[in-house]
Amino acid sequence: MSDTLFHKIIRREIPADIVYEDEHLIAFRDIAPQAPVHVLFVPKADFATLDDVPEEQALVVGRLATAAAAYARRQGFAGDGYRVVMNCNRDAGQTVFQVHLHLLAGAPLGRFGTAG
Ligand code: 5GP
In degrees rounded to 5, what are phi and psi of residue 50? Predict the structure, then answer.
């Protein structure tokens, strides 16, 4: 297994506010939230970026999305709405190189980023 920050959270070597876990993935609150709700969904399978996930492993990514949607329903804000984001590599500002999905919610969100 790789040794990113998120792998250390998965192995409980550093603390995190974990809100969900199953055999495939873990979800925990972002340490620097960009919205009232900001949760990261991280697969236990080892892929540095979205670009590293082969088509035959599409479920790894699909599960992140359906787990985020299920969390939103459980927390009661699915109807109000939410955004999911995956940053891939430099121009998107990816900082942790274990693939992950951001769930943002809890207030009306601005339009997503444009260049510049
Ligand atoms: P990225 O920019 O790679 O898409 O997202 C990485 C996210 O990890 C950032 O939103 C950042 O705030 C979050 N993050 C960085 N360090 C930690 C940490 O130690 N704990 C938690 N819970 N989140 C972190």
Answer: -60, -35
Answer whether 47's CB lies under 8 Å from 60's CB. yes
What is the Cβ-side half-sphere exposure of residue 13, based on CA atoms within 13 angstroms?
Answer: 8
Q: List the domain range (segments joined by +) for residue 64.
A: 5-105
Cα-to-centroid distance, 32 and ligand 1 (Å): 7
Q: pLDDT tens across 33-89, in order?
A: 999 999 999 999 999 999 999 999 999 999 999 999 999 999 999 999 999 999 999
Enter the pTM of the model.
Answer: 0.97
Asked if residue 53 belongs to a domain, the reply is yes
How many domains in the chain? 1
Atom 24 (ligand 1): residue with closest C-alpha?
A: 31
Reply yes or no on whether 7 is catalytic.
Answer: no
Residue 54 CA to ligand 1 center (angstroms) comes to 24
